[in-house]
Design brief:
Layout lengths: L26 H13 L3 H14 L2 H11 L10 H12 L3 H11 L2 H8 L13 H10 L5 H13 L3 H12 L8 H12 L3 H7 L11 H4 L3 H5 L8 E2 L1 E2 L13 E7 L2 E8 L2 E6 L14 H5 L4 E11 L2 E2 L2 H5 L9 H6 L2 E11 L2 E2 L5 H15 L4 E3 L8 H8 L2 H4 L1 E8 L7 E2 L4 E5 L3 E12 L8 E10 L2 E8 L5 H13 L1 E5 L2 E4 L4 E6 L1 E4 L7 E4 L2 E5 L11 H11 L2
Parallel strand pairs: 1-12, 2-13, 8-10
Antiparallel strand pairs: 3-11, 4-5, 4-6, 6-7, 6-8, 8-9, 11-13, 14-15, 14-18, 14-19, 15-16, 17-18, 19-22, 20-21
GO molecular function: ATP binding; DNA binding; DNA ligase (ATP) activity; metal ion binding
Pfam families: DNA_ligase_A_C, DNA_ligase_A_M, DNA_ligase_A_N
EC number: 6.5.1.1
Length: 558
């Protein structure tokens, strides 16, 4: 049953039409929202659907939808193996047939919703969304029998669409093509408030079980939460030459470090460290505790969480040895000590500085960090240059510096919310590439659940092929369809959902970094691997070798 455990993307479900009709206090109203968001391809249609929901739904349901769509899913009360077994028992299927159905559909929540017998199409659950979430929280530590009784009763009183979203509450996040920005815009229209204000209100460490909708979207949430971070300002990739940005004197250039973007906050004598993904990471990096007494109250610094020795960044692979560990060993603290490379000053002496120009924020930041002189808080240097051609030549040394390229920031820019065009750009170096052959294929998730779109690749090692990475992005829909047809015609063996295929299709794999790994047969692990192009012009005997990977590790792996 290991293959049932998954973290699927939300599919565009093929559930019965017209099965989602209910009043604004029922589960059906939330199911209707999910169906609209999952099937619409137009941003305005998604925005209208969310505005309608936030304007009409029960206030507790609004809070939980904000939580779910921003990644604050309640702790899983029932595992996917239990769900699968209870569904098999309820419908009287042999388990092998359930698994085949799941592999075809590609999404566990939808598979169960489709297999369970349908009720009267007009029948809907009488309970709202928050009722089911509260019950799932309540049964978390109950016996399996109690959990089973609740799940079966809930399935019994729901139609297919409601079962689908109910199952999703249990199995995974609601990743349905709705960005945080879209949700913020919908809330802003509903509350008649600026999106930047809403984005700040719903950030941070709030509890959907206890906070009210009014508290969440008002200034009460900020006043009551000293830990609350500011929404991050994000950059777009620079697509033109940097000369298109005009006078180079108007721009500040910094290294684009390869770490975890974060904010360090000191308020009310407490220190908080947030990641860009809004994960509170204070306890994961004990090095930062020394800043608790060193920093003054009322300060927020934006920067990068990076392993560093002698004020120089270390490879991201060392940071990965620290992520996700509850207890950090003395050896890890010595081998991968964590520093904070400061980019920007967002709050100073308790005053929000985001509307001040970057140049003013930067000058104050440099003055503060220099006067503090703390080994864990470092200033990310500004790169001096006279013209764009000179900067282009400097960019080629990015990997030697442990960077991914440059950040270009207009000196007059304010610190905005989210991804905006015009003032901040990332100018990255070209990725590393290697040619490899596809040897395994698996069906994707969501809208690709009927196509083989997840691939495993290998390089040559003498007469053998050695697998070294997986990738599932980078091809067009047409190319995915062509590869899918090849897999179905050229499958050699079947291992559950995985197919071994004839090693004939060659692809160029792009990646951002390479590190040594004891967990992989090849001895290497790639950072952000993806397909950059299908090499129709190459044959299998022309692909790269394991020795080529090892040489890249020597040069770029540090």
């Amino acid at each position: 049953m290991d293959e049932i455990e998954n973290n699927e993307e939300m599919p565009q479900p093929s559930l019965p039409k017209g099965s989602v009709q209910g009043d604004v206090r029922s589960m059906a109203f939330f199911a209707e929202l999910v169906m609209k968001l999952g099937t619409s391809t137009k941003t305005n249609a998604k925005l209208d659907a969310m505005v309608e929901f936030f304007s009409s739904a029960d206030d507790k349901d609004k809070v939980w939808v904000i939580a779910l769509f921003s990644g604050r899913r309640p702790k899983r009360a029932v595992n996917t193996t239990q769900l699968a077994n209870w569904c098999v028992e309820a419908v009287g299927l042999p388990f092998w047939l359930f698994e085949e159905s799941y592999h075809t559909v590609g999404d566990l929540a939808e598979t169960i919703a489709l297999l369970l017998p349908e009720h009267d199409p007009e029948q809907s659950s009488p309970h709202p969304l928050h009722y089911y979430i509260e019950q799932l929280i309540a049964i978390e530590k109950e016996t399996e029998q109690v959990k089973k009784r609740f799940i079966l009763h809930s399935w019994h009183e729901m139609n297919s669409a409601e079962r689908f979203v109910f199952n999703k509450l249990i199995t995974g996040a609601f990743r349905i093509g709705v960005s945080q920005g879209l949700m913020v815009n919908a809330l802003a229209k509903t509350a008649n408030t600026a999106p930047s204000v809403i984005a700040h209100h719903i950030s941070g460490n709030w509890d959907p079980s206890t906070i009210s909708f009014t508290e969440l979207v008002s200034d009460q949430a900020i006043a009551a939460d000293y830990s609350k971070p500011y929404p991050f300002f994000l950059a777009y990739a620079l697509e033109d030459e940097p000369s298109s940005l005009g006078n180079p004197e108007e721009w500040q250039v910094e290294w684009k470090w390869d770490g975890i973007r974060g904010q360090i906050i000191k308020r009310n004598d407490e220190l908080y460290v947030w990641s860009r993904g809004e994960e509170l990471m204070t306890e994961k990096f004990p090095e930062y505790q020394t800043l608790k007494d060193a920093l003054p109250n009322g300060i927020v610094i934006d920067g990068e969480i990076i392993p560093s020795i002698d004020q120089k960044p270390l490879p991201f692979a060392l940071l990965q040895t620290r992520i996700g560990r509850k207890n950090v060993t003395k050896k890890q603290l010595q081998e991968a000590p964590i520093a904070f490379f400061a980019y920007d000053l967002l709050e100073y002496e308790g005053i929000d500085w985001r509307n001040k120009p970057l140049e003013e924020r930067r000058n104050q930041l440099e003055e503060f960090v220099t006067s503090l002189n703390h080994p864990t808080l470092l200033i990310s240097p500004v790169i001096p240059f006279d013209n764009w051609d000179e900067l282009g030549r400097l960019k080629e040394s990015s990997r030697e510096m442990g960077a991914e390229g440059f950040m270009l920031k207009r000196k007059t820019s304010q610190y905005l919310t989210g991804r905006k065009r015009g003032d901040w750009w990332k100018w990255k170096i070209d990725p590393l590439t290697i040619d490899a052959v596809m040897v395994y294929a698996q069906k994707g998730a969501g809208r690709r659940s009927n196509l083989y779109t997840d691939y495993t690749f290998a390089v040559r090692d003498g007469d053998k092929l050695v697998t070294f990475t997986k990738a599932y992005s980078g091809l067009t829909d047409q190319e995915f369809t062509q590869v899918d047809a090849f897999v179905k015609k050229n499958s050699l063996e079947k291992f559950g959902p995985v197919r071994t295929v004839k090693p004939e299709l060659v692809f160029e794999i792009a990646f951002e970094g390479i590190a040594a790994s004891n967990r992989h047969k090849s001895g290497v692990a790639l950072r952000f691997p993806r397909i950059s192009r299908w090499r129709h012009d190459k044959k299998v005997d022309e692909i790269n070798t394991l020795e080529d990977l090892r040489k890249m590790l020597e040069v770029y792996g540090k």
